[in-house]
Amino acid sequence: MQEIPEHIEQIIAKQLDGSLSDKEQKSLEDWLSESNENLLLYKETKSIWLHAQAINVDAAWEKVSAQIEESKANNSSQAKVISFRPWLSRAAAILAICLSSIAIYYLFNRNNETLIAVKAETEIYELALPDGSDVSLNQGASLEYPKEFDAKERKVKLKGEAFFEVEHAAERPFIIDAQEIDVEVLGTSFFVNSPENAQQIEVGVKSGSVSVTSKKTAEKHILTKGDKLIYFVDGSEFKIEKMATNELFWQDSALLYNQVSLTEVLKDLELQFKVEITYQLKDFENCSFSGRFNTKEIEEILEQISLSYGFAYERSMNGYELTGKPKCRD
Question: Model confidence over 166-198: pLDDT tens digits?
């Protein structure tokens, strides 16, 4: 991947601090329209800058400067500091050590290959890869990928859960190293959940198809739209089933229910939001529910359901308690 020309870097810096002229804005737009790679470089630069604004710049820069000097003194051959121009290096280095940011970037050189490692800390993080593919990292997930993909394949390493929308390129398969398995695609959308030291790894396909191969046994399975694979690490065994309706709630913020029991809805909310919902089972088990929610606020969902069925809810130590007998619909 090419570097941003110095005069364009200066224009981007002016845009981000609000001092860009109309002529400079036109120059930036012309440069962005030249190639998709220019657009990706711009997005990456803007992301670094915006994340850096949320922290104590001076304190963080003092800390990272000390780390850089220590790295130089140690003369490590395993990791090198990547050179940035002055205005950008400060923001990038600060971001690399900021534990409170959405994601942490590490730029380093290993065996003469520039790699980028991104970790989502406390929020879902979205990024574009060098080939134009889009990735959403769930909380705690990390992704490692080269700054420029190989001419024969596009390979990344994943720990945790991520959703991928891969650009089609038949001559360059996209491969995810998910610890105990490899997931290979040509162009599709899917998720992989591969927690560190996991006992099982999951792959689900939203569109297109993927192949999943065990590194230990070389056993391979092809998944198509709606399929979900579970790989049990200890026994090197595969299980294939259909994806649950709300499997990708963390990524698309949508919950859909179609004539399911109200108790199943409440169980799903417990799973999705990691809370405990207590209620009298006999009062709720004969109710059914259909509806769609587009929110990640559980209280908004409980409010809508409680208004529809005429019961009340209140916060409890571990979640929520539902009181009153719901009025089930015919």
Answer: 988 888 999 999 999 999 987 789 999 999 888
* Distance of alpha carbon 284 from alpha carbon 272, whole angstroms: 20
Q: Show the domains of the chain with their CATH numbers.
A: 1-76 (no CATH), 102-248 (2.60.120.1440), 253-323 (3.55.50.30)
Determine contact, residues 101/57, Cβ cutoff 8 Å: no
Task: Supply the pLDDT for residue 166.
Answer: 92
Cβ neighbours of residue 329 under 8 Å, at least 6 residues apart?
A: 287, 288, 309
Report the alpha-carbon distance of residue 24 to residue 16 in Å, rounded.
Answer: 12
Identify the residue whose tokens are 């059914």.
Answer: 288
Q: Do 27 and 11 meet the contact criterion of CB atoms below 8 Å apart?
A: yes
**In the beta sheet, which residues pair with residue 159?**
142
- Cα 16 to Cα 302: distance, rounded to the nearest angstrom: 41
* Measured CA distances, 113 to 78, 107, 148, 301 (Å): 11, 11, 9, 47
The phi and psi torsions of 162 (rounded to 5 degrees) equal -150, 150
By percentage, how much of the chain surpasses pLDDT 90?
42
Query: Which residue is it, tokens 């695609």?
Result: 185
The structure's pTM equals: 0.62
Q: Read off the tokens for 241.
A: 């089933």
- What digits encode the pLDDT tens for the residues 209-247? 999 999 999 999 999 999 999 999 998 899 999 998 898
